Amino acid sequence: MTYGQIMTPVTYDLDALRAVFPAWSVFRSDAGAFYATRRGETLTDQQIDAGLQRTVCADDLADFVQLLQVQEDLR
Fold it and tell me: 36 with 64: CB under 8 angstroms?
């Protein structure tokens, strides 16, 4: 990138993600990673063994949405 070029940030809408995945508390870290933690749900050992996770994270929005969808599909 040369001096004077404007960087356009990748846009995302955390409120839209929250609406699609209401069982998750979704946020973005200061470092730019996406995180989601299950709301008010305790996972059993059997659920964890089956691949369910309490918290997921990803650096990329597409990967993040895919992780959340996989977690929902495992339910």
Answer: yes
